[in-house]
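Example record used in the benchmark description.
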Amino acid sequence: MELSKFKELLLKVAVCAIACDDDIDDREIKALHEIEKNSPYFSTIDLSETLDKSLEACTKDLGAFKNNVFNMLESNSLNIVQELSILEISFRIIAADEIEEEKEKAFVNDLRIHLELDDFLIEQRFGDISYLKPKKTEFKRNRSDDFDSITTTSK
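Model output (structure tokens):
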């Protein structure tokens, strides 16, 4: 994905993370402004105007804004670093007000569905996030599935 388009997508993901709990906390906006000014993805460009427009659009219709972001994720090919950056900015924004609301956790899980990242990579980068649901595929099984099949066949 072209870098300027990725910056826009990353900003929109951050705006969703800010607004997903129906409360736009000043600490979350401040955290995003800090990220915008200090991140290598944002540092060469001033996104303040885009940020303000995105916040306005998101507050008017969060569902439509979020669906647009998810569609952008689905329609673009992102590399591993870009996908990890998307998760990282979401985690940082959500943690900014020191409260992890259920709606914020649900947003991260919805976001997770639209990323190709393997669960192993996410855990290696961010550690165990108790509320993050694993991405289920037809090829992956967890250890409890193996244990269940062993115990039921041995009875």
